[in-house]
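Cont'd.
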Amino acid sequence: MSPITGELNRRDFLKYTAITAAALGLSQIDVVNSVSTAMAASSSKKPPVIWLEGQDCAGCTTSFASALNPPVASIILDTLSVRYHETIMAASGHQSEEVLHDTVKRGGYVLVVEGSIPLADGRFCTVGGRPFEDILKECARNAAAIIAVGACATYGGIPAAGPTGAVGVRDVIKNKPIINISTCPVHVDHLVGTIVYYLTTKKVPPLDKEGRPLMYFGETIHDNCRRRSYFEEGMLLQDWNDPKQKNWCLLDKGCKGPVTYADCSVRRWNDGLNFCIDCGAGCRGCSEPIFYEGMSPLYSDFSGEAEKLKQEANQRAKMRKEVK
Amino acid sequence: MAESKRITVDPVTRIEGHLKIDVEIENGVVKDAWSSGTMARGIEILLKGKDPRDASYVTSRICGVCYSVHQLCSAYALDDAFGAKVPTGGTLLRNLVMGAEYIYDHVLHFYHLTALDYLDIMAIAKYNGKDKELNAVKDKIVGLVKSNDTYPLTPRYEPDEFCVNDPDVVIGAVKHYLDALSMQAKARNMGAIFGGRQPHYQSIVAGGMTQLPDLNQVLMFKTMLDEQAKFVNEVYFPDVIAFGTGPLLPLATGGVGGGHYNYLSYGALQVNPPRKELLFPAGVITDMDPANIQVRKFDPAKITESVKHAWYENSKPLHPSVGETKFDLDKEDAYTFVKAPRYDGYSMEVGPLARLLIAKDPTLLDLVKQGVKPGAVARHACRAIETRMVVDACYKWIDQLIAEMTKPGFKIHDSDHWEIPENGEGVGFYEPPRGALGHWINIKDKKIENYQAIVPTTWNASPRCEGEVRGQYEESLIGVPVPDPDNPINVVRVIRSFDPCLACAIHLIDPQSNEIKKYIVE
C-alpha cells in the first residue's frame, strides 16, 4: 500500500480538518466574527466594489491580500461585496462580464483601479475583447467613489516609461475626484484606511495636490527616517557587510527618501515587520508622480539632489560644532 | 456530420494577468484550442538605457504575484554581468526568501485560484455536524446566501460530476480556503523578514543582499516557518492528495489536461551552498514514456522563439541571442502577445510537473505507478510535493545561516562588484513555482543595451509555431470533455492547473523602434 495515498480516506480527511481547525486556530477572527456576521448579514447592505485591473502586475491585489489585521477574508466576505475582481472572483468569461455590466447599471459602487491605461493603442490591454480605457470610462460613470491604487493606476508608474502610452486614471477620468493611493505596490493600510474613511463619512478624505490622502502622504520619508541622525552627521553606508554601518544613512545607495512623500518610515510594511529602508535597500520614491522614470537611476544620485542635501547637512553639522 | 461549436472564455479569471481561451468543441470534447495573452507593457523596452542595477527592482514588477523570482533571476543575470561572487550568506538569505515564495505561491494557487473549480460550495448548507468552527463557516456562507450577496464566490460555472458535494468534505475545504488566506499572507511576511517588505521585495540586488540579518530575525523566520510547515504538512498536502485520489481520481487517471509529454527544467536552489547540488535538478524530457522516463542534459543553446502567430513581424524562429522583434498589431494569423519558445523544436511544459519528472521524484513516481497520468491533477499533486521539499530545505538553510552568521567576517554582498562594468553580458536561470525562468542582460557604456526575459508562462501559454505545433495550454485542452458548451468548467480547470501568469508572459513589446535585440546565452 502506498505510504502517500493508500491510507487516506474520507474519514481521515474529516479528522484532520477538524484537528487543524481546532489546533491551528488560524481563522479565529473569522470564527469569532462569523456567527454575528451571518446573523446580521441578511439585513446588512455591504457596499459593492468593482476592482479593475488594467496594465498591472497584480501586486496591489497581492498587497491587499496581505491584510492580516483585519484579515483579508473578513474584508472580502464580511465588509465589502466584491462584485468584480478578475484575480479572486469565481466567475469566468461571460459570467464575469455580466456581473460587471449589472453592477455598473445599478451604480453606487466603489471603483478601485489597479494598473495603468495604454493610450497609444487600445489593443495593448483588452478584457473581454474590449479596450481597458473603454471599460474604465464605463465603470467610472456610475461610481460613487474612484480609488486609484499603486503607482501605475495613479500616475502611470513603471509602464509610463515604456512604449504603450501608459497613464494613470486621472489622465482618463477628468470629471470626478480620484483618490490616488500611490506607492508600488499600494500599502494595504492606506487602502483599507481610505475605504473605511469613505464608508464612514461618504466623503473623499483631504488630499494633497497629487490627489493623495494627506493622512498618509503628508510628510517625506526623510522627515521621519530613523537613520536621519546618521545623515546629519554625514555617516553614509558604503558597505552592506559592515555591521558598524548597518544603521547608517542610505543616501549614497541612492535613497530617494528626501523627495518622497509617504509615511512608510513610521508605518513600515507588513504589520510593521520591515520596509525598504530598514532592510538596507533605501527608498526608491515609488509614491511620487515622477516614479519610475524620474527616479532612475534608482541606486545612485538621480539629479544632484543628494549632493546638495549632503552639503547642507555638512553645514548644519559644522554649525553644531561651533555652538559647542 | 458532427456539430462543432467555438466558445471563448475571456477573461479567464483567478489567474495572474489577462488571458483569453478559445476552444472548438465537437461531440462534447475539445477539438482545437487557442491561447491568447491580451495585455502588454513593454518592461524590457523601458529598461534600455537605464542603470543596469535598476533591472532587479523594475523586473520585479513584471509580476506582482511572483515578484521575487524576477528580482532574483535578474540579480543572477547582474551577478554574472558584473562578475560578482555572492557570498554564501547572501545565497542562503536569497534561498530563504525564495522558500517563502514557494510556500505562499503554491498554497494560494491551490485554495484561492483553483479550489473553487472543484467544490460545490453551496453544499455547505447541508452540513449537520457538531464541530463548532465548521458550523461558524457554515453560518458565514449561509448568511451570505440569505442576504443574497455571495460575491465573489458566485456566479460560477455549474458544478459537474467532478465537483465535490459531500457537505462534510466541502465545509472542511472552505474552512481551509479561509485559513489559507491568512497563511499565504503570513508566508509572504516571512519572506519580508529578509526580503525587506512584500509585495515586491527590496533587498535582493546585484551582488547579494542589502540587509545584514540579526539572529532574532532568523528565529522569527523559523517560528513563522513552523506554522507554515504545520499547515503544509497537515492541511495543504493531505487536501491535495485526498482530492486527487478521491473525487478527482477519474480526472487524475484519465490524464485530463496532459498535453505534450515534453518537459524542461533549468534547475535551481543550491541545497547546501556554496556546493553546487540543486534542490531541483536541470534537465529535458521529450515524448515521455511514463514507464521509462529518459532525462537529457539541458542545453541553453537549443532555445528558439517563434513569432509566427504572435503580434510581431514575421521572422524565422531564432535563438534569443540573435532574436529579432518587430511589432505588428495588424498581423493576420496572429492571436496573442505571447511568443512561442521552443526547445530543440519541441513545445515544452515547464513547472512543478516538469521539475519532479526530471528529478524522478519518488512520491510522484509512486502516484504514476498507481495510475495517475501527467495532467491537471498531477500538476496540483506536484505543487504539494515540492512545497514539502522546500519547507524541509528552509530548515536546513536556517541552520546553515546561523552557523555562517556566527563566524567572523560574515558577508551578504560582494561589495567589490557593486560598480557597473563598462560593458558586459549576463544570464540568469531560475526555477520559480511556475517553471523555467531566464533573464538576459547586455551592458554597454554602463547602461542597459538590451534586456530579455523568457518566463514560465511564455513556455506554457505559447501559441502555435512553425509547423502549427500547439503550445502546451492549447495541446493540453485537446480531448478535454465539455458536455455543455455554456459551462466549460473543464477548460478552466486545465488552464488553471498551470498557474498562469500572463503579466509575466507579455512584458516585451516595441511598436516604434523595431530594434534588433541581441542576447548571449552561455
